[in-house]
Predict the 3D structure of the following.
Amino acid sequence: MDSGLCATSVAVAVAAYLDLADVCRASMCCKAARQGFGSRARRAASLFGGGAPAHLRLRFWAKCLKVEETKQQICKSQIVSADEYYQSLLAKATRGQSCGRTGTAALSPTGVQGEILRDVCRTFPGLAFFRRRDGPGENMLSNVLRACAIAHPDVGYCQGMNFVAGALLLAHLSSHPDMTPHPEDDAAHDAHSDGSQSSQEVKHAHEVFCDAKDAPLYPEDDAAHDAHSDGSQSSNTSRDASPDPRTIDWWPDREHLRMEQDVFWMMAALLTKGRAGAEAHDELCLKARERHEVEELWLPGVPEMKLRVYQFDRLLERELPRLHAHFKTTQLQLEVSRVPRSSARRSGAVAVVLVSQWLLTLFAYSLPLPTLVRAWDALLMDGWKGVFRLGIARLRDVQEQLVVLSAVACLCDVQEQLAGMEIEEMSKFLRGFRTAQSLHARCPPEQLLRACGSIKVTPSALRALQQDFAVRLLRQHLTRASGPQRYFMVTRSALRALQQDFAVRLLREHLGGGQGEWLQRYSPLYPPPPDAAAAAAAAAAEVSSGVEAAVRGMLLDEPLLLRLKQEIEAVSGPVAGDVAVFQCKIAAAAIRQEEARQQAKVLAPATTQLGIEVLAPTTTQLGIEVEELRERVSLLSHQMHALVLAPPCEDCALSAAAAPTTRDPPTPPLLREGGGEGALGGRAI
Amino acid sequence: MARHESPFDMQIKLLMIGDSGVGKTCLLLRYASDHFSQTFITTIGIDFKIKNIELDTKRVKLQIWDTAGQERFRTITTSYFRGAQGILLVYDVTDKKSFQSIRNWVAQIQQHADVHVNKILIGNKCDIDNEREVSTEEGAQLAAEYGIQFFETSAKNDINVEKGFITVAREVKNRLMADGGSQGARTQGNVALSAPAKGGKKSSCC
């Protein structure tokens, strides 16, 4: 146990200097290392070390997302190959359209297709790859998104998916083998010969990403960007003849399709995770599902959003209390005509604005691509924990500046202006580093990820917050039950958390007959503050009357209670029957046992007599044999003692060593017998 | 602490809503930074812009909230309706559907926003005349039905953009001044502004 822990911590420390591939390799090297180089070491490598090497990155992501499993699962249920499945989805998406074309040309202007059509060219507008009308970037992205929408009709298309799919496409693009320079290029040739293909790909990935990094994600700097991109394009073509990702017509269709499919399957894995888990109830699936639940986030009405925002808000409060307080005051200034009604409204404007973008796009909206791919290494491994960590790490960078700013503002009494400026600055900052120089210099990915590593977000903390949120939701629901039911969304996860807690309590209270405690638990002022208990009690009585009424209504609901009772009886009926049978059997057994005891009493003298008469000779015989055996054993042990205690001269040692070997061949039966007796004697003694 | 001269006399919060892709962000960019770009980006969540203007001798700070238009984000965007003092309803004149859903948006406003919030109807992309699906008359008719102002704008060609924002800002300003008086607004900033307006608009919690 101790050594295991030690090995793990050593491995984790080492992993901080490695990249993910090294860690995986190390864990495969030997069994001992596997224990150490586990998930913690992988995390260390992804946060502090080199992350996934560029040429293995996609495979690593696919592994994290369990793409293969998803593929198999879907293909098995559809009885088609993966390629056919994708083709059929595209065909379905295109059916009813003008002709068999794919890409943006085949999109109808209405419905989901229209939404995709509108957004495809608005994804990463800084990149010409996606911006070009009817170019390969647009077509591939729209195909992927349409296929996703067809494959998951309940999710359809949610804004934000375009950025995730787009970033995945870019990542695939940069690691595509065709992206390497022409083979006749000398430098490329050398690189190939010593097998460092990855370095080339890194270089190329870097080129693609440079374009992304220097390009504004925001249209404001468009003029500047146009000049920049035009310049770089021309210099690019003149410098080397390598194919530019932005003029990608040279690609054969097959390659397009392959890449589209890869991206589609990754998206599908992101989206199916929940469903796969829902079908199989084992612990592993449950864990996996808790890690990535993007599906519910992207569903119509974004039902999961409030939960995640709440979790983020509370984590922020814990990790960065000053910034959190600052946001709160800012929010007060922002929300002019409203004083927050209660603490339930604490997840304020700013937090939602911040987090919704980050969550919906998994940071693809706001991080420059080189940082993003590194971040995703960690993020796909950790799921929501990773997302929250990254978000908090990013905010920690600004905390100092913001708090100082506002302190200065207080002194100068120009706070209103600054607060106003700040929110605009803030929103700019969230959309990319470049546009908000005043707040933030460009943050290298290493620094950001290292910061992530120092933030602790545990699954149990998240789960606790989730439960908290579920209770809050129920409270809101109950207090609002009288009003119109608008936008009341309960997510599966919230329900899960709620069900356990609620059902257990409900049943216990029902069966136990008491009705007080859990009412209090769900009343808005639970737990009551210790110092103001009396005041709170009065307030609670007032506020929770609505809740109580609703709950009491439930308790007085005769049919409901009857149904519950019946259900319980239905469950407990057969058990009760069994118990009765068993009790009968036990009673019968007891009677029989008693009888047997009586008989034994009666029979005891007879048995003794019988024993003496019948068994005595045999026993005597056995006793003699045992005595003989014991003698032989003592003899043997005596001999052994002599051998062991003999002076350690060489002769003796030799003879002692030689003795058995010389004696061995002629007397094997004796030796075996002696050994057997020795063992027997040992046991007997 | 000594009370310094505030850099503005009042702050007004405007909200832009409308279907996805009607050009809300472009309108805002045109107005706030007088700039139009051919490259657009999907708005995810909510975005802000601040614009300080001079409105009838008052220095007004406009805080404009730009929302995501996709239907499924309404649960989030509607929670911002409450704080808004003016709302710009935007549709696309080349997209009949975006015009039809204006009614839906108005219903949302009635349900979620303050009762006295000022509204304005804006038909964007009026420069694309050959693809027009919604006539100016239709727009004007709808606006008249709701008793609100109506403008056809073009963020691209800078037609009526400023006019639209200024109009709604002025309406809000006049309403607030009638409600609370300019004195309170001047010294107390936004908080005092809102206090008198609060009484009548207690619609529902959210």
